[in-house]
Specification:
The chain is mainly beta and 205 residues long. It has one helix and 16 strands.
């Protein structure tokens, strides 16, 4: 968790900012190491654009993400939270590989589901920490890269999509990349810490 979310002292009054979008981190319950819960990565102060992650004593999970950025009652949510990393790993080691066979998810509008889909199989792992230069105001930070691969075949091979989350100890997400068939198709840099808090929140339960 210390890599996935900004620490409690900082997130109370600061956020990560970048050229494409900011990240405001909100953790429920608002503690550094609760046994279980969830958190928001809000991609604007008004909570338009967001990711919802969850956690328990065993795993960290993807729960949902925005669908239409201008309407935060629309989103995609996994039917069952999708595990992306084990909750605890040795401080200098990578996390174990996680295979997920069922990636079923639903589309929501006005907080209600209206259709279902799936992402093939998923294959996820977390790198060992290395010191990386963010190029922003947080400077060099201990970073783990989460590899979230999906649209894989039934043998968890030949994955079409891979998202890479660059996670800094004490700060959370500072860079994101999306590859399709090994080609970079999108990226976001969020490497400056600034004062401020989100004024909006997510309206759906």
């Amino acid at each position: 968790m210390q890599y996935f979310v900004m620490n409690k002292l900082n997130r109370a009054s600061q956020f990560m900012n970048g050229p494409q979008n900011p990240i405001y981190t909100q953790v429920f319950p608002d503690q550094d190491f609760p046994a279980n819960g969830y958190w928001f990565w809000l991609k604007s102060a008004s909570a338009h654009g967001f990711d919802v992650k969850a956690f328990d004593q065993n795993y960290i999970y993807i729960r949902s993400t925005e669908l239409v950025w201008t309407d935060n009652t629309t989103f995609k949510r996994f039917v069952a939270d999708l595990p992306i990393a084990t909750r605890c790993v040795a401080s200098d080691s990578p996390g174990p590989e996680i295979q997920v066979a069922d990636t079923s998810f639903q589309y929501f509008s006005s907080c209600s589901a209206y259709k279902s889909s799936q992402l093939g199989t998923a294959l996820n792992d977390l790198d060992a920490p290395v010191l990386m230069d963010t190029g922003g105001s947080i400077g060099q930070v201990s970073t783990r890269v989460l590899h979230y691969r999906y649209n894989c075949d039934s043998a968890f091979q030949n994955c079409v999509d891979e998202e890479q989350f660059f996670l800094a100890s004490g700060y959370g997400l500072w860079q994101w990349k999306h590859y399709q068939n090994g080609i970079l198709v999108n990226s976001t840099l969020i490497n400056n810490i600034e004062p401020g808090t989100a004024i909006g929140t997510l309206p759906c339960a």
